[in-house]
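User: quick one, sequence for these tokens?
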């Protein structure tokens, strides 16, 4: 287990390594876990470290306290507005989306603005009952980034995206589940245990299968599937020993020890 060292009230990202699961925690409770510019800038660097760590197989993004993330720190939002599509927030979101291993957002309380941006960039989102979600640039006259809008459309569809962006209203967890913004909804008291159990299960599965599936899904959404690239993945399945180990473990009724790593 490892944590970033910082004063207890310093806005920051904490890192916890437990087994093969890395948990990144948004910590800025004085401002409802709003992301400062320093936090936006730190996230891609932290993910680069975790990407290179062969011992990490799953990433969980969560929060300290009862709010997932209230968005960008409003006192620093001028820089994000000025930078537009190249802002620190967009680059952080893209770093989460590009992380090659499975990613899971564990959401409690409000998940608004930049917080929703980060959660949408994760592969999966598990939320606690009572959580609220909103994409709120229309309250400030901000043009939401095109790349971020496209990601939201791919996740929940054009109509639901327009509803969120046009109104800037917060929606409840039940509606978020219905439109596909979240994947699972649990009582608040059960969320941490469910996330830990599911992340542990993912860590036991074939990382080759997961990484290939992640790339296939992304390519399918964007219509960029290339036959040669798909063939390369199937060649790797045969040569890496991953499938051989999985089949042998199934036949021998034991837990597989999958050998493949992208490193």
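Assistant:
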């Amino acid at each position: 287990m490892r944590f970033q060292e910082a004063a207890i009230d310093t806005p920051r990202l904490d890192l916890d390594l437990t087994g093969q699961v890395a948990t990144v925690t948004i910590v800025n409770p004085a401002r409802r876990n709003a992301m400062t510019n320093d936090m936006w800038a730190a996230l891609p660097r932290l993910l680069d470290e975790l990407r290179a760590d062969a011992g990490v197989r799953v990433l969980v993004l969560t929060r300290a306290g009862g709010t997932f993330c209230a968005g960008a720190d409003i006192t620093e939002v001028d820089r994000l507005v000025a930078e537009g599509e190249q802002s620190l927030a967009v680059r952080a979101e893209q770093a989460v989306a590009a992380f090659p291993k499975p990613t899971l957002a564990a959401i409690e309380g409000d998940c608004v603005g930049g917080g929703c941006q980060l959660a949408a960039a994760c592969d999966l989102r598990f939320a606690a009952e009572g959580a609220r979600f909103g994409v709120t640039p229309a309250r400030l006259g901000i043009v939401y980034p095109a790349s971020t809008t496209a990601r939201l459309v791919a996740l929940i569809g054009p109509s639901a995206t327009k509803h969120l962006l046009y109104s800037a209203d917060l929606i409840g967890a039940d509606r978020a589940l219905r439109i596909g913004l979240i994947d699972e909804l649990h009582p608040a008291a059960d969320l941490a245990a469910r996330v830990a159990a599911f992340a542990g299960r993912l860590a036991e599965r074939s990382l080759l299968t997961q990484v290939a599936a992640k790339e296939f899904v992304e390519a399918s959404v964007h219509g960029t599937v290339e036959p040669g690239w798909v063939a390369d993945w199937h060649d790797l399945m045969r040569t890496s020993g991953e499938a051989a180990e999985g089949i042998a473990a199934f036949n021998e009724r034991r837990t597989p020890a999958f050998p493949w790593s992208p490193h």
